[in-house]
Amino acid sequence: MVQAQRACLTSDYIARQLAEDASFKYQLAEVEKFIQSSSGNTNIIMSSTRAGAEMTIKIPVVIHVLYNTQDQNITDAQIKSGLEALNRDFRRNNADTTNTPARFKNIAADVQIEFVLATADPKGRFTTGVIRKQTSITDFKMDDKIKFSSQGGSDAWDSKSYLNIWIGNMRNLLGYSSSPGSAPEKDGVVITTKAFGTINAPAPYHLGRTAVHEVGHWLGLRHIWGETYCGDDLVDDTPIQGGYTTGCPTGFKTSCSNGDMGDMYMNYMDFTDDACMNLFTVGQKNRMRSLFNDGGPRFSLLLSKGLNEPWLSESPLPEISPVNPVIQIFPNPAVNELTLVLSNAWLGKEISIQSINGILIQKVKITSLTTKINIALFTPGLYMITGDALGEKIHSKFIKL
Ligand SMILES: [Zn+2]
Q: What's the total number of domains in the chain?
């Protein structure tokens, strides 16, 4: 399905975190204070270990591929194309720099950040940098389930040392990102399967720029219009802009009295189609790189051993893990129908429904990942559902009203 507009939910995601966690506002404010205090020397990476004002920062990446159907288990080639797209645009090696309007050419930046698949896992074992897991979740949402093995996703690798990118099917979304200062176990970028890389990604999100946009958020960038009408993205050289831009406009557009500069709708942090975005600015570069200064929220990545030779000769993590135990039973209480969502391990197995006194009411053979059970004629009360499949156990209660 092709979205009418770039469906990035990062600002909604941040709003939700703010609503759920009172301390998150403080975390964000601390990060912003750090960025602003670094603004005089934002090109200086003050790491004693890998110093250099204009050094290229290499970020170890782990890709978590979550697939429900085999075609969502994307190829290594597609993954590689996604990394290449990130490096192409963050290094300003994109062929379409020629589409950057003349008035913005002198502020278009090579961000000098590169993204490399990890070679050593958090324990120092060999890794391809790619984890593949089958899941019973058919449609991931902004709820972070994709980030937790216990919920049908895949646990983050230590986000102080790795950029975690989760790829899974999200029906109506392109992606979302955490912001610097987020909880470590949720830190990273989520991209829908069909918008990652340049292979098997349908237009208009076919050039890998969903990840470029989301990693921009992960490195502290806001949307170019500052999330509100004529808002501020906290970057000096991006013109104030009325709102987001969709599709693929051409020519000069102006809003918010932004005068000679006009809207920078070709910036990666707008909502234009992949084919129509082509730059980060120097101001955005400085904002992103300031996070790597000593004491900054991304500084620890400079010390990561994720790109080292493996130093532990233990057998590597299995690249393909068994299906995650995901058991959902809803609604609860239920009136007429109960829905069970189970993993592949349950296919062909039976579950039992018992009264609270242990009397068997019904056995149900599981023939698909989603099973609906008619309970309209059950006597109201408390019931048990039990079962065992390859070590995955169900022992749940539900109430029939
Ligand atoms: Zn966004």
A: 2
- Distance between Cα 288 and ligand 1 center (Å): 15
Query: Which of 7-16, 196-205, 323-332, 373-382 has the weakest average pLDDT?
Result: 323-332
User: What distance in angstroms lies between residue 349's CA and the mean position of ligand 1's atoms?
Assistant: 43
Indicate the residue among 321, 347, 378 that finishes a domain.
321
Cα(213) to centroid of ligand 1, in Å? 6
Q: What is the CATH number of the domain that holds 345?
A: 2.60.40.3080
Query: Omega before 333 cis (within 30°)?
Result: yes
| In-domain check, residue 271 | yes
Same domain, 213 and 352: no
Q: Which of 20, 114, 214, 309 is catalytic?
A: 214
At 81, phi and psi to the nearest 5? Answer: -65, -30
Residue type, 4: A
Percentages helix, strand, coil for the chain (3-state, rounded to 5) are 25, 20, 55
Q: What distance in angstroms lies between residue 195's CA and the mean position of ligand 1's atoms?
A: 14
Q: Are residues 297 and 339 in the same domain?
A: no
**In a shared domain, residues 344 and 215:** no
Q: Is residue 146 part of a domain?
A: yes
What's the gap in Å between 135 CA and the centre of ligand 1?
A: 26
Half-sphere exposure (Cβ direction) of 130: Cα atoms closer than 13 Å = 16
For the stretch 159-207, pLDDT in tens is: 999 999 999 999 889 999 999 999 999 999 999 999 999 999 999 999 9
82-108 b/e (C-beta count within 10 Å ≥ 16 → b): bbebbbbbbebebebeeebbeebeebb
- The pLDDT tens digits for 72-88 are 999 999 999 999 999 99
- Nearest in space to 177 (alpha carbons), one of 145, 144, 152: 144
- Burial of 242 per CB tally in 10 Å (0-12, 13-18, 19+): middle
pLDDT level of residue 318 (50, 70, 90 thresholds): low
CA of 100 to the centre of ligand 1 (A): 20
Domain that holds residue 303: 10-321
Last residue of a domain, one of 321, 345, 373: 321
* Residues 27 and 47 grouped into a single domain: yes
Task: Output the six-digit token pair for 21.
Answer: 């966690």
Q: Please indicate whether residue 214 is annotated as part of the active site.
A: yes
> Residue 111 Cα, ligand 1 centroid: separation in angstroms?
18
